[in-house]
Design a protein that fits this description.
- Helix content is about 45%, strand content about 15%.
- The chain is α/β, with parallel strands linked by helices.
- It folds into four domains: about 120 residues, Response regulator (Rossmann fold, 3-Layer(aba) Sandwich); about 160 residues, Rossmann fold; about 80 residues, Helicase, Ruva Protein, domain 3; about 40 residues, Arc Repressor Mutant, subunit A (Orthogonal Bundle).
- α10 crosses α12, α13 crosses α15 and α18 packs across α19.
């Protein structure tokens, strides 16, 4: 058996007992799992009860012929592949079967290697189609459960909406920057929803959550045997999302070798499956997101400068929650009204509890707010979140009115500076701002000293 042969579950439908037995014997030795049927009725019984990927169907059968069975099989089991077995005088009929949906036809007697190769191709086709269906189902599930709303009327959020409206109708690559939890994926979905690719596939992947091998396989796909555990061919995100959009979260965490492959795709629309030398082409839009300063990553040798130029056609900076605190009441109402359905009952928030929330700096941004509200909603037996239902660090805060945005920003920057032991370069990196911007703010706060440490 060829080392590249993909084996699978095959139903042999032939009224000749000797042919069925011979095929079972030889194909089983090659690794195929063989079921048998001597008639159309028997074939339907097997298909209804067994897992079958390919049907090897003789054209001449008692009762319903293979030509008559073919459309009935494909109507009831459309994901199967059917290969027709023909005699010397049945070639015209076999061609008609191909037009009716059969994947291939072979003349009897056929060479075993030829038969194995045809079955292997059919199994691969069935499994690739199944992968596409699984990806599509995953996409539908993610989209149905996704938060696609940008909630709030602040000027900062208005600027983001304006940028989305400007960039969405184009096909340019976009980088979304902002701290963790600010809603970068929400912005990405808004861009897609307003684009010409709105009804095409949209797939997301976290570049920092997977090993290099798995990330490459997920994005570009792989051939059978490309690496340990690659037991069958797999299509990748860039192939499945052709005509659509791929969202690369935490793109700054992408390994250097992967950065080079992504650059080629952005430059030429070309890529290779892992383990293949065949050039493949795709048309996808890339939206990337990061909570790091990519220019600083380039200077540190961690990110390719040419890739940054390719990705950075347009940058949209997502403001942290502390810079749009006027949106907090609307966000709370939205989260409690639509994002916490699993709590099982309607929940609102009191004015006193809201004051406590408004006194917090929200380093985890909207994601932190949603987690706080979820926890509080579970504790709020009466359906109203009160200060006592909030986590201790919020419950004990002094709700002395809402501080100014400048004061909230000052507190946060100085807190991060203290966490970094006074290291300004690290502070700027964590805040997602340049060192120049940090130095300017520290001068205003009266905390500027020379040096990075």
């Amino acid at each position: 058996m060829s080392s590249t042969l993909t084996t699978g579950n095959v139903l042999v439908v032939d009224d000749d007992d000797s042919i069925r037995r011979a095929l079972r014997r030889e194909l089983s030795r090659s690794g195929f799992n063989i079921q048998e049927a001597a008639s159309g009725e028997a074939a339907f019984n097997v298909l209804a009860s067994e897992e079958v990927e390919v049907v090897l169907l003789d054209i001449r059968l008692p009762g319903l012929s293979g030509i008559e069975l073919l459309p009935e099989i494909l109507a009831r089991w459309p994901h199967l592949a059917v290969i027709m077995l023909t005699g010397h005088g049945d070639v015209d009929s076999a061609v008609a079967c191909m037009r009716a949906g059969a994947q291939d036809f072979l003349q009897k007697p056929c060479h075993l290697g030829e038969l194995e190769a045809a079955l292997s191709r059919a199994v691969e086709k069935v499994r690739l189609a199944e992968q596409k269906r699984d990806l599509a189902a995953r996409l539908t599930e993610e989209t149905a459960g996704a938060n696609t709303d940008l909630v709030g009327g602040s000027e900062a959020l208005g600027q983001v909406r304006a940028m989305i409206a400007r960039v969405a109708p184009t096909d340019v690559s976009v980088i979304l920057t902002g701290e963790s939890g600010t809603g970068k994926e929400v912005v990405a979905r808004q861009i897609v929803a307003q684009s010409r690719r709105a009804h095409a596939p949209y797939l997301t992947i976290n570049c920092g959550a997977l090993s290099e091998t798995l990330l490459e396989s997920e994005l570009f796909g792989h051939e059978r045997g490309a690496f340990t555990g690659a037991s069958e061919r797999r299509i990748g995100f860039f192939e499945h999302a052709g005509g659509g959009t791929v969202f690369l979260d935490e793109v700054s965490e992408m390994p250097p070798a992967m950065q080079a492959k992504l650059l080629r795709l952005l430059q030429f629309g070309e890529y290779f499956r892992v383990g293949s030398t065949e050039v493949r082409r795709t048309d996808v839009r890339i939206i990337a997101a990061t909570n790091r300063d990519l220019a600083e990553e380039v200077r540190g040798g961690r990110f390719r400068e040419d890739l940054l130029y390719r990705l950075n056609t347009v940058t949209i900076a997502i403001p942290p929650l502390r810079e749009r605190m006027e949106d907090l009441p609307a966000l709370c109402q939205h989260i409690l009204g639509s994002r916490l359905a699993d709590v099982g009952r309607p929940v609102s928030i009191s004015a006193q509890a809201l004051e406590h929330l408004q006194s917090h700096g929200w380093p985890g941004n909207v994601r932190e707010l949603e987690n706080v509200l979820r926890s509080a909603a579970i504790m709020a037996d009466g359906g109203v979140i009160e200060p006592g239902h909030l986590p201790a660090h919020l419950r004990h805060a002094e709700p002395a009115g809402t501080p100014s945005l400048d004061e909230v920003e000052r507190r946060h920057i100085l807190a991060v500076l203290e966490q970094c032991g006074g290291n300004k370069a690290e502070t700027a990196r964590r805040l997602g701002i340049t060192k120049k911007t940090l130095y300017s703010k520290l001068v205003v706060y009266g905390r500027h000293t020379r040096g990075d440490g």
